[in-house]
Amino acid sequence: MGNKDLEEEIMQKAQQNRKLARYMSSTRDLVEEQIIKARQRGDFDNLAGAGKPLNLEENPFEPAEMRMANKILKDNDFAPYWIELGKEIDAAQDKLCREIDYFKRYCQVFWTDQHDERAQQRFEYKKELFFMERKADLEKIDKKILDYNLHCPTFRQGRSNLIIAREMEQIVREIETTIAKAKKP
To answer: What is the pTM (predicted TM-score) of this model?
Structure first.
């Protein structure tokens, strides 16, 4: 296929898309116009339930035979396994962030003063231990995410798996940047 043919095909597709966009825009305008006219005529005045709060307790998509069972579970603070697992994942990620922030503060405090070589070696040991522990945390979170995705009713509600190497690179970069800033006079 030559460049001329490709350019011609692109132009045809663009023209077709313009027509569709014009049609969609005119349909939207037509609907909005009808709503405005109905409002002006007063068609929305005195509707049943006007001014009252909506009842959001009842799920219209829930099968009638499951309503009682779901109400009992909800009233007793039970949730499906995948929802509870999602809460655990969120809590683990929050804990990970707090651990990282805590270690960054530790680095700042440590490097504000001068230390002998032995203290610096202990610090390096703690830093390496910190990185190993955070990698283990990330692996646990990733396993929970996998379990969550397996139990989740639809793929749209699933969570992205962690790329542990990339996450660790980011953690190391944050810690090293914090150390570099703290070492500067």
So the answer is: 0.62
Residue 72 resides in a domain? no
Q: Which domain holds residue 37?
A: 10-41
Q: Could you read off the pLDDT of 47-82 as tens digits, one per residue? A: 887 778 877 777 777 788 878 887 888 888 888 888
Q: How many residues does the chain have?
A: 185
Average pLDDT, the chain: 86
For residues 96 and 139, is the Cβ–Cβ distance under 8 A?
A: no
Number of domains in the chain: 2
The reply to whether 66 falls in a domain is no
175's CB contacts (< 8 A; 6+ apart) are: 100, 103, 104, 107, 127, 130, 131
> Of the candidates 173, 183, 185, which has an alpha carbon nearest to the alpha carbon of residue 108?
183
Q: Is the pLDDT of residue 163 over 90?
A: yes
Close Cβ partners of 99 (under 8 Å, ≥ 6 residues apart) = 133, 134, 137
The position carrying tokens 């944050």 is 174
- What per-residue string of b and e applies to 128-155 under the rule 16 or more CB within 10 Å gives b? eebeeebeebbeebbebbeebbeebeee
- Cα separation, 60 vs 169, in Å, equals 46
8-23 pLDDT, tens digit each: 777 777 777 776 666 6
